Structure formats: structure tokens, C-alpha cells
């Protein structure tokens, strides 16, 4: 047998690696790689509760972690085994518009029983995620999401790399089944659908064995519909290394807490400072109380001292936002919601009073218009710089996400903030972002509080 295999290998090599073999291997690999959305049941609540019926990719929730090297290809045949049309959006990646997965804008929703081939190059290292982008406020709330990690070319100096996908769930306290009222007007007109049960990685208890003085890379994803996580560390000390996949120029020491809004990611490097026998935590603060969002059981020290402060992660290519003075100026006026000042807005081409909008279960407007229309917020040319001022004229915070591009906030002193793809804009704030128009196509810009997206908070930018 060994003999045969060896001669087979030799023959393969003699044929020339550049011709048939790699092509065949690639085709076979592509055929094998599917991502199937289907109903599943998971032990979301503690074991004394029944399993919760969710929707997941490949029968698990969160879906499979997709890991590729920077510059590698992501190829998946999305297969829809749900009772509803669906699509997959690759949140935060600079890909071709046709692969962006926005049902109704960049592609038709894939019907039950149908499929769609996604194929793109992951050009930027970092922590990303993928999620359903049709009826997102229902499909994401049911569990259709997963993490996508693009590895840096050089390994980062750490002992462990962990993904922490955060979500909250609205569960019946008896049966642990999901509240299926996804169109509830109260959620849509207020802060969005928030859960009564918070989990990490789709399970009731997330804990990792670690060692004192270990350095961990924690990749956090906020997959919730509407919860703004307020997080901190206990028994751990570390730095914020990247927001929304994009490295900071200088790691930022974590003193106190930080926020993670829906759709956002953050990469941390943390050192285990707790000693053997203790438990360290990623802490969630909720109305002044601290809860364990993830636990780390500390074992004997891996080294007698901690490492020194980390170097920044390598920057991704072409992320400058030049020419701010001459940049195209754009404005977004956000209005609506409960307790807001919205008197009327245009829905399906007709001016409606707030009362009429509420009857249509629509509550929010961007520049006086409710929801997506054929008219983009702006027409830009690829490579053009733009500055967008966002005025939140509502009493709720909104996590504004731009598809296909990262932006930098223009700060009060004129300097530029870190690269992001999702910006949390608080009530009554005006914030400005600057970006370079990326690849041609139709790029969605919307609130990632998904009940808000569904009730008016969506527009798009056209890039020629
Ligand atoms: Cu993460 Cu339009 O979405
Ligand atoms: Cu919102």
C-alpha cells in the first residue's frame, strides 16, 4: 500500500503541479463547502430547561467559524432549508457588491430549497461575522449568524485565541422557547428587540481553562438585535487592539469598561492576572450590576511574569481617508420613534403623518424618507472621499452600519477616529464620519438595531 501511494504521489508531481491537479482539488473543495441554514435545537438555557428551537447554519448556533488567511478566498454555497427566503451578508468585509448578500438590494432572497454561491477574497485581516440579511430582525434573532476570522500573515504573540459571540434572547421563562413576535410595534418604535437572557457562543455557560500570565486574544462579536453591551475585565488586564476588524494605530489600555453595539466587534489582548484557583471574567454591566459574560478558570502560571505591552496589529492596506477638505459633504437626519419629534415622512412615495406611519408599523425616517427607495442617499464615484454628518434627532441610540467600507469619525478637533464599520450614535448627538467610496455597487447604510432597520432606518449609497 505504502509503495502504491508513494508512486502515485510521484506520478502526480511529474504531471506538473500547475496544471490539472490543483484545479481539480479546488473544484472538489468548492463542491464540499456549503453553508446550510436550517432549523435546529440547542441547549441555550441551563440544562434543567428544554432545548431551544432556533435557526442555525449547518445545524449549529452560532454557525461554523469561518477562518481564512488574509488574501484567502471564502467560497460557500448557501443552501436555504428554512421555511423563509434568506441571504447571507458578510459584515465588515470589503467585497464585490454582488457578494454583499442584501436581499432586495444586491441580490434576490434565496427561496426555501434554493441556493446561492458566495465567493470572495478576504483582503483584510480581522474579526468579522456573517448573518442573515432578509427579515434580519427575525432571522438574526432566531440565530442565523457566525463569526468569520481573517488571520494576519504573521502570527500574533499570544497563547490562545478565543471567539466570544454575544447575544441576548427573548425566551419564555418556563419553556425556554423564543418569543416569535418579531414585528412587535413596541420593539420597533423603542430601543429594538432586547432579550431577557444573555448568552455567549449560544450556551448558558461559557468558560475557558487558562493559566496565570497567559496572553489571550479575545474576539468579541455583538450579534444581538439591539443590546448595547457594556463590558469590563476582572482578573484580566489588557488592551483594545482593533475595532470592527481594523487594528488601532496604538493598542488602548482598558481601564474601566467599554461598549459594544450591535454589529460591532472588538479584538482584545488580555493577560491573565488572577492567580491559580481563581476565576477571571469578561464582565457585563447591566444597570450597575456585574455579571459574568465569560469565565476563565485560572491554573498554574505559564510564566513567572507577564509579557510587556503588545505591539499594534499590522494595519490593513489602503485605509487612508485623504482629502477631507475637498470631500463630498453628505447629511443624514435621523428622526422618529416613540417620544420623538417626527411629524410626517414619506413612505412608498406618499407623505404620511406619524400616526399613519405607526399604523403601517413604520416609525423612523432618514432625511424624511421611511425605508429603502430607488433613490440612494448619495451617488459617489469609486475612490472619492466623502464626509457624512449624522444627526440623531431621536431619543434612542442607533448603531449605524455602512456596508462594504470602513469609515473614520471626524472628531471635534478635526482629527480622525479609529476605523469602524458600525458607529453608535446616541440620542441628540451629531457625529460625522469620513470614508473613501470603495467598490462600485449599492451599499446599504442602516441602523443595526434590527427592528429599526425593519421600520424605516435604511438607505443606501450608490458607487459608480
Ligand atoms: Cu450586519 Cu446590514 O448588516
Ligand atoms: Cu436604530
Brief write-up:
The chain is 10% helix and 43% strand. The protein is mainly β and 464 residues long.
Could you explain how this protein is built, in words?
- By secondary structure, this protein is mostly beta strands.
- Helices cover 10% and strands 43% of the residues.
- It has helices spanning 2-15, 20-32, 136-139, 185-189, 354-359, 450-454; strands spanning 34-42, 52-57, 66-69, 73-80, 88-91, 115-121, 126-132, 145-151, 160-169, 197-200, 207-211, 215-222, 229-234, 236-243, 246-253, 258-260, 265-272, 279-286, 289-299, 328-336, 344-347, 350-353, 364-366, 378-380, 385-393, 398-402, 407-410, 416-420, 422-425, 430-436, 441-447, 458-463.
- A 6-stranded mixed beta sheet has the order 10-9-12-17-14-15, with no helix packed on it. The protein has a 6-stranded mixed beta sheet with strand order 23-20-25-30-27-28, with no helix packed on it. A 5-stranded mixed beta sheet has the order 11-19-18-13-16, with no helix packed on it.
- The radius of gyration is 23 Å and the shape is globular.
- It starts with a helix and ends with a strand.
- It binds CU-O-CU linkage and copper (II) ion.
- Residues 398, 447, 449, 452, 457 line the site of copper (II) ion.
Sheet bearing the most strands, described? Answer: 6 strands, mixed
Structural class: mainly beta
If helices are DSSP runs of H or I spanning 4 or more residues, what is the number of helices?
6
Strand ordering within the main sheet: 10-9-12-17-14-15
Please state roughly what percent of the residues sit in beta strands, choosing from under 5%, 5-15%, 15-25%, 25-35%, 35-45% or over 45%: 35-45%
Hetero compounds: CU-O-CU linkage, copper (II) ion
The tally of strands reads 32
Query: Which term fits the overall shape?
Result: globular
How many angstroms separate the termini? 59 Å
Helix content: 10-25%
Amino acid at each position: 500500500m505504502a509503495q502504491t501511494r508513494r508512486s502515485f504521489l510521484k506520478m502526480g508531481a511529474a504531471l506538473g503541479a500547475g496544471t490539472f491537479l490543483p484545479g481539480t482539488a479546488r473544484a472538489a473543495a468548492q463542491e464540499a463547502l456549503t453553508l446550510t441554514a436550517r432549523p435546529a435545537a440547542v441547549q441555550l438555557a441551563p440544562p434543567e430547561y428544554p432545548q431551544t428551537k432556533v435557526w442555525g447554519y449547518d445545524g449549529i448556533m452560532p454557525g461554523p467559524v469561518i477562518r481564512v488567511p488574509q488574501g484567502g478566498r471564502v467560497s460557500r454555497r448557501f443552501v436555504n432549508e428554512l421555511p423563509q427566503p434568506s441571504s447571507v451578508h458578510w459584515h465588515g468585509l470589503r467585497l464585490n457588491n454582488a457578494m454583499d448578500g442584501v436581499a432586495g438590494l444586491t441580490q434576490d432572497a434565496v427561496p426555501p430549497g434554493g441556493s446561492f454561491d458566495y465567493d470572495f477574497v478576504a483582503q483584510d485581516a480581522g474579526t468579522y461575522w456573517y448573518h442573515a440579511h432578509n427579515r434580519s430582525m427575525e432571522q438574526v434573532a432566531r440565530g442565523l449568524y457566525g463569526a468569520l476570522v481573517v488571520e494576519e500573515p504573521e502570527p500574533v504573540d499570544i497563547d490562545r485565541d478565543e471567539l466570544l459571540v454575544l447575544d441576548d434572547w427573548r425566551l419564555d421563562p418556563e419553556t425556554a422557547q423564543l418569543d416569535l413576535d418579531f414585528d412587535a410595534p413596541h420593539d420597533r418604535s423603542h430601543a429594538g428587540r432586547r432579550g431577557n437572557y444573555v448568552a455567549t457562543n449560544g450556551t448558558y455557560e461559557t468558560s475557558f481553562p487558562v493559566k496565570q500570565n497567559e496572553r489571550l486574544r479575545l474576539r468579541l462579536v455583538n450579534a444581538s438585535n439591539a443590546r448595547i453591551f457594556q463590558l469590563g475585565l476582572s482578573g484580566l488586564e489588557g488592551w483594545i487592539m482593533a475595532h470592527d476588524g481594523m487594528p488601532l494605530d496604538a493598542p488602548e489600555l482598558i481601564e474601566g469598561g467599554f461598549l459594544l453595539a450591535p454589529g460591532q466587534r472588538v479584538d482584545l489582548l488580555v493577560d491573565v492576572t488572577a492567580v491559580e484557583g481563581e476565576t477571571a471574567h469578561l464582565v457585563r454591566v447591566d444597570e450597575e450590576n456585574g455579571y459574568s459574560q465569560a469565565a476563565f478558570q485560572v491554573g498554574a502560571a505559564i510564566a513567572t511574569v507577564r509579557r510587556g505591552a503588545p505591539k499594534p496589529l499590522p494595519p490593513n492596506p489602503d485605509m487612508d481617508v485623504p482629502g477631507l477638505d475637498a470631500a463630498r459633504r453628505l447629511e443624514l437626519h435621523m428622526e422618529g420613534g416613540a417620544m420623538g419629534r417626527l411629524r410626517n415622512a414619506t413612505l412608498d412615495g406618499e407623505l404620511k403623518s406619524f400616526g399613519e406611519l405607526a399604523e403601517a408599523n413604520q416609525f423612523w425616517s432618514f432625511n424624511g424618507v421611511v425605508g429603502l427607495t430607488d433613490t440612494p442617499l448619495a451617488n459617489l464615484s469609486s475612490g472619492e472621499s466623502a464626509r457624512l454628518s449624522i444627526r440623531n434627532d431621536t431619543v434612542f441610540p442607533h448603531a449605524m452600519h455602512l456596508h462594504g467600507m470602513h469609515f473614520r469619525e471626524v472628531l471635534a478637533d478635526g482629527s480622525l477616529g479609529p476605523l469602524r464599520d458600525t458607529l453608535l450614535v446616541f440620542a441628540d448627538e451629531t457625529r460625522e464620519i469620513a470614508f473613501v467610496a470603495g467598490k462600485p455597487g449599492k451599499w446599504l447604510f442602516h441602523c443595526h438595531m434590527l427592528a429599526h432597520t425593519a421600520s424605516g432606518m435604511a438607505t443606501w449609497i450608490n458607487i459608480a
